[in-house]
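pinned: reference chain
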Amino acid sequence: MRDVDNHVLPFLEPTIDFPDHNTAFKLCKPLTDYRVATPAAGPSTTTAAELAALHRFTQARNPHVPHLVCYRSTQQPEAAASPLPGGFITFTVMTKLPGDALWGRFWSPTYTAEQRQEISQHFLRALQSVRALGVEPKDCALRNVLWAADSRRCGIIDFELWDECVTSHASALSDDGQAELQLQQWGLARRPASNNWWQEWFRHMR
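pinned: its structure tokens
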């Protein structure tokens, strides 16, 4: 296990005990019926992408996204006790953002029109801060947007899919047209009816 400065940390045990609750959490459940014919030589592209994004967020101390605490990447032994014998595995520990996901809530009676407008403005500021670090999220969905009502803070999670972008793109969100398009892509604004659903699919990357 390594921290964000690449220092080696003790490896996570298969069982983590929580003395205050007198409970235990099984980290890995062996899947002895599965074998990897050709084990991967490293982490998947999505895992590598998320680790790279988390490194940037941690170094920048961005409050709108998770920060990397530590991680470990290794090939699992062939022993049957391994979760996936012979396969590659990465353990990632990151901070948990406050708030609730907006999926199933944003367009419900939970929020008024004024509250939805407020959340949208906070979201645009959060997205702008992420873009300023050269990260353009690709998994645009309400399930990846968190809103903490008590602190009036919006968060964005899930960076397994993202593209590099020039940091100047962050200022593009000050344009009303670009801001509205982003809100539509993430599900924070209603999309106008489209006459061509094929173009609609590609425009919003769905």
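why pinned: The beta strands are 2-3, 15-18, 23-26, 68-75, 88-94, 100-101, 135-137, 145-148, 153-156, 162-164. Residues 16 and 22 are 11 Å apart (CA to CA).
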